[in-house]
Design a protein that fits this description.
The protein folds into 2 domains: 129 residues, 3-Layer(aba) Sandwich (Rossmann fold); 158 residues, 3-Layer(aba) Sandwich (Rossmann fold), CATH 3.40.50. 40% of the residues lie in helices and 17% in strands. The structure holds NADP nicotinamide-adenine-dinucleotide phosphate. NADP nicotinamide-adenine-dinucleotide phosphate binds next to helix 5 and helix 9.
Length: 299
């Protein structure tokens, strides 16, 4: 095994493969990284077959396929196509993490869960979670992970409710999770929703503040407020990027983007390292990222 170099093929449906992912792969020890951009779903089978046959079967797992992009459902469909091409003994490893969203969402929910410990009986189970920026790739998967952990999740859009309803319907089919939908187009919309929230997840576009101090003042049941936007201003007023459980004015704990980002980095780094060194083919998705994130925050 040692004589065969690990290879990482990074595939994206977008015009550019993410430089972030290339950097992460190098930091995880890959020295051979091939980027493929503007890849179409229908090209995945041929491309995967081209990756899997050149090496002897006992070296196949060291060939890694990383699927990026900015759409969770498309990335998962691309992975499904790739897996449909694989068969023993020519099985390569596959890691899906579009726009870093699977590892980011996993880190976010693991951090939220840790902050809930001792503050809410049952942790995430039954907790009312509102996800702002829910049509985004990070927000959508954070919602799925929270729902799979037993939370009652509402997808909130700043546009119209139909966009998030479509996403909820897609995720019901894919992951068998029930996600409620809501729109909060203005201050009034946010004020109407927030009194119910025990946890808010701000997953909005970089540099956009979604929840102000005035909005938060009506969130009387709020226990944890987590934000992934690292570009000022923060997505939630009063939650700074490095905050890791800072108490906010109303008593809730704030988690900032760099606190989440630090854990996300460790998760993606470790999963890439596992793929680089494995002797058996790996199939890595957001479930694996969440399991690892949970174990890292507990350590
Ligand atoms: N901390 C980390 O480690 C880390 C890692 C990766 C990404 N990120 C950050 O995570 C966030 C989400 O990433 P993404 O790729 O999912 O983001 P995105 O696609 O750029 O935006 C996410 C969502 O933000 C909402 N939005 C857009 N403009 C808005 C506005 N003017 N006001 C309110 N909401 C608006 C939209 O959702 P609705 O239409 O549904 O409202 C959009 O789908 C970004 O800030 C990104 O930089 C952080």
């Amino acid at each position: 095994m040692a004589d065969k170099a690990p290879i990482l093929h990074i595939v994206s449906p977008l015009r550019h493969v993410s430089p972030f992912d290339v950097n992460m792969a190098v930091d995880a020890g890959y020295t051979t990284i091939l980027p493929y951009s503007e890849v179409k779903l229908e090209e995945m089978v041929d491309l995967t077959q081209d990756m899997m046959f050149s090496r002897a079967p006992d070296h196949a797992s060291r060939t890694g396929l990383f699927i990026g992009g900015k759409d969770a459902s498309l990335a998962l469909d691309m992975a499904k196509e790739a897996h449909s091409a694989l068969f023993p003994p020519f099985q390569i490893s596959v890691f899906v993490d579009p726009a870093g969203s699977f590892t980011t969402a996993a880190a976010m929910i693991a951090e939220v869960e840790r902050k809930l410990a001792g503050r809410r009986e049952g942790g995430l189970k039954g907790a009312k979670v509102q996800v702002y920026g829910a049509t985004g790739v990070v927000g959508g998967i954070a919602a799925v992970i929270a729902a799979q952990a037993g939370a009652h999740v509402t997808l909130v859009s700043h546009r119209d409710v139909d966009t998030v309803r479509l996403k909820a319907a897609d995720f019901k089919v894919r992951f068998d999770v029930d996600l409620a939908s809501a729109a909060a187009r203005d201050d009034e919309g946010k004020r109407a929703l927030l009194p119910e929230a025990e946890i808010v997840l701000a997953c909005g576009k970089a540099g956009v503040q979604i929840l102000s101090a005035e909005h938060l003042s009506v969130a009387r049941r709020l226990l944890v407020a987590a934000d992934v936007n690292a570009v000022p201003p923060s997505g939630i007023a009063g939650v700074e990027a490095l905050d890791d459980g800072k108490q906010l004015a109303g008593g809730a704990l704030g988690i900032g983007a760099l606190a989440i980002g630090h854990l996300k980095y460790r998760v993606q780094h470790e999963l890439l390292k596992r793929m680089r060194t494995t002797d058996t083919a790996l199939n890595i998705g957001f479930e694996d990222a969440f399991t690892l994130a949970r174990s890292l925050v507990a350590a």
